[in-house]
Amino acid sequence: MKLTIVTPSYNHAHFIERTIASVLDQGYPDLEYIVVDGGSTDGTVNILSRYSADLIWTSEKDRGQSDAINKGLRRATGDVVAFLNSDDTYEPGALARVAGYFEQHPEVQWAYGKCRIVDEHDKEIRRPITWYKNLLLRRYSYRKLLAENFISQPATFWRRQLHNEVGYLNEDEHYVMDYEFWLRLGRRYPAGVIPGYLAAFRMYDASKSGSLSNPQFSDELRVAKAFSNGDRLPILLHRFNYRKIVWTYGLMAKIRRRALS
Question: Sign of dihedral through CA atoms 244, 82, 161, 167?
Answer without folding.
Answer: positive
